[in-house]
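Q: Sequence in, structure out?
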Amino acid sequence: MDTEWLVDFIAVIEAGSFTKAADRRNVSQPAFSRRIQSLENAVGVPLFERGIHKIQLTDAGVAFQPAAEEMLSQLANAIDLATSAADRKRNSIRFVCTHTLSFNFTPAWVQDLVKDFEVHPSVQITAHTMEECERSMRDGTTNFVIYHYHPDLVFNFGAGNTRSVDISQDALVLVGRPDLLDAARGHNALPYIEYSQDSSFSRIVGLAQADIPYALERSLQTTLAQAVVNAVNGGIGIAWCLQSLISDRLSQGELVKVIERELPLTIRLAMPRSRQNNAAENFWRMALRTTSKNLSQ
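A: Exactly. Output:
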């Protein structure tokens, strides 16, 4: 069975029609229909109801869908594992980090360290959700994970699977625009932007809500820290923002603290305990030396 047929099958489900799916797959309509027919011949039963305005799955198609998705997922994982194994023999380093750190921290920090390598390694930095970062560590498909750490958070890298070091400091600060706070005086209520439950910051800030001397009226819920900052800058509400993302606006008075308390975080570098390629092990040693030097100053 051609794995491209499975991708075609999922494309039809997502697009809702053969025509749209063929466009997305950059295949002519007749050729795409033949590929779907080939898949159905291989499976042995029809997977789609035809002759109606909107394509629908047959009962067999409904049963086949999760298996098709799982096969594609396993194939992608196998490719990642093979790539990771090949990387151990090459002068390359693979990093995954959270989306926020991919914007404002990781690229500059990594390049500052690798510039001193005798032979500059090939560096790959991929932004993921924290859950995907954890999975990359467990699966062994990355050399390093860079993420925000707080002791109240639980990370699933696999029991005893990692070595780690804190490489920088950050904090969550409750801030808002001055005009928003001025308008709220006397009302004792403020619009509040909160992190979605799938954000690693939602648990941290949830424990700190009792310190806020205002009633909070949720105005927005979102996952990404940068999206929270953008909403605060737009005057949508107050929020716990990463200090690293708002320090300039705080110093210029464009944002002000709602309360003085800050929630301290560290930025942490983690890697598997198992032996990595020479480039990754060299990077780890340089990160430890740099961190020790900064702490002693």
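The radius of gyration is 24 Å.
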